[in-house]
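Hey L., structure's done. Input below.
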Amino acid sequence: MARAAVRFVCQSCGAVSSKWAGRCEACDEWNTITEEAAEGPKFAGSLASSGGGKGRVIELASLEGFGEPPPRISTGIAELDRVTGGGLVPGSALLVGGDPGIGKSTVLLQASAQLALKGERVIYISGEEASDQVRLRADRLGLGKAPVALATETSLRDIIATLKAEKRAAVVIIDSIQTLWSDTLEAAPGTVSQVRACVQELIRFGKERGTTIILVGHVTKEGAIAGPKVVEHMVDTVLYFEGERGHHFRILRAVKNRFGPTDEIGVFEMTGKGLAEVANPSALFLGQGGRDGEPVSGSAVFAGIEGTRPLLVEIQALVTETSFGTPRRAVVGWDSGRLAMILAVLEARAGTSFGPFDVYLNVAGGLRINEPAADLAVAAALLSARLDAPLPRGTVYFGEIGLSGAVRPVSQAEARLKEAQKLGFSSAVIPRLPNGAKDSLAGPKTTAVPDVAALLDAVRRA
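Output:
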């Protein structure tokens, strides 16, 4: 009997090779290559014999409803609607990832209950829990009477057959995609081949029926969604849950969205009744100061922007004399490479040495900041910790720092200042703006600093 054809597939990136190796040459990951049965050619000979397929070509401008936004289905959860761009698009596919226990299944169960209570047909398919377990969680969340259809199945053939029997399913939730398997493949569930095939079949069904498909994806130890990157390319929207188990809030961030912005975040608070929306996220990320609420050194408030939402976050810095030969640099919630750059600029342009000191930087609340506008707040916190001089209460900071030491303007300055004023901040340290631009800003009193030397002087005067 002829030996079945096999191939070797990387479970991290999906690269295929003809022989096994300890390290994948495509993504450099170790011990991720497994042996799988080769898939037979499904279309072999058909296109070649017919000279190719015949497709229908239409003009883009002739499409009906051209220029109109796609219709949306509101989930009833404002923060989830914000991240998705205004709601769920019929026929779209969403992939939701996050660490175990962070709240993926909880928020999707809450959303499915809200949709069902509004009259939408929602089917929740769990491949990891029994129906009784899902029902117990729904009862704990106070959603036990929601008319959500539940199913526990991992066979893709049975799932598709069940969904085809439904005439008006608006939303289908698969928890999780790594548990599904197709009997057309010999690979084990969770492998690259199985995940890719199951996602492709579900997306095809959703596009044909106009059903929104929401997939839950496991994550690797590095925090990326497990499985090949091609899965993220196949879906329309990719959402990540961020946050630490020790913190009581969660952040839902869009990293890909074909129907909306990719820089929006939704903020939730973990409570006994599930994930609750946070109407004012800035209050979560602001500290209360030191003992009796007095300001402490090394603390600065950054006025940031996450998507279209202004957000105030506390930046904390600690500078201590090192006990070892090599000073330590520890960062939580910010880019470590950018911290090294800020420290070098402060030493070269402001004359403040951090060489013999350990430097610790933390973004309060576990939020991760990516925009360069946080440079000025980080520099102010570092200088305050280095000089042991608390910054004045009621002051916010934002601005980008260049290698020359100059503080550069950033976008949406007025929105940042209005958010600071709404939360009771009376002053702001900002970059120098063009003539006339400062007069048009509404909000707290502003102090413009042209470079890090001026910032050092402002910290010393405080």
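The first strand starts at residue 6 and ends at 10. The CA atoms of residues 162 and 235 lie 22 Å apart.

-- N.
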